[in-house]
Write a structure and sequence with these properties.
mainly alpha; 29% helix; 153 residues; two-stranded antiparallel sheet
Length: 153
């Protein structure tokens, strides 16, 4: 197609990027940072991605010596799961800059009421939300903990 630019990119982990079809199928989308600025010529007032950022990404003081890697996406996946369970991500009730400071300092977030969920969900989350990347389980192991069944019609 003429005039269409295509590029490979990853979908940012966030519940807003998960689309559910009327037949129950799930699709991933990423509209990036989109805002209607027609009524605000100065620009948008937003801070993107804070609540899903892994502690090692936020606290990465020496990127050239100790860069973070794809393991930070495992943290983001755990936060998205918590967001889907609680409707909002952890720390969404505080200013994004304050959240940015608290994520590396606080203990990993957990389910408010684990008894409301499958017995597999809390252990899955605890293995995703590990603050020390070297102690993080492999993604293959974490995915083996997910127990998904076919949807009922």
């Amino acid at each position: 197609m003429a005039g269409v630019v295509r590029r490979a990119h990853t979908v940012r982990a966030a519940a807003a990027n998960i689309l559910l079809c009327s037949d129950g199928r799930c699709k991933l989308a990423d509209f990036g940072v989109a805002a209607l600025l027609a009524n605000n010529p100065v620009g948008a007032y937003s801070f993107i991605g804070t609540y899903w950022m892994a502690p090692e990404v936020i606290d990465n003081k020496s990127a050239s010596i100790n860069p973070y890697d794809m393991k930070s996406d495992i943290w983001s996946m755990g936060i998205v799961c918590l967001e889907l369970a609680h409707v909002t991500p952890p720390l969404s009730d505080v200013h994004p800059m304050k959240a940015l400071l608290q994520i590396p300092l606080n203990d990993p977030p957990t389910l408010n009421d684990p008894s409301r969920w499958s017995p597999h969900f809390a252990p899955f989350l605890s293995r995703c939300l590990v603050k020390t990347p070297v102690c993080l389980y492999s993604i293959l192991y974490i995915l083996s903990l997910i127990h998904i069944s076919e949807p009922t019609r």
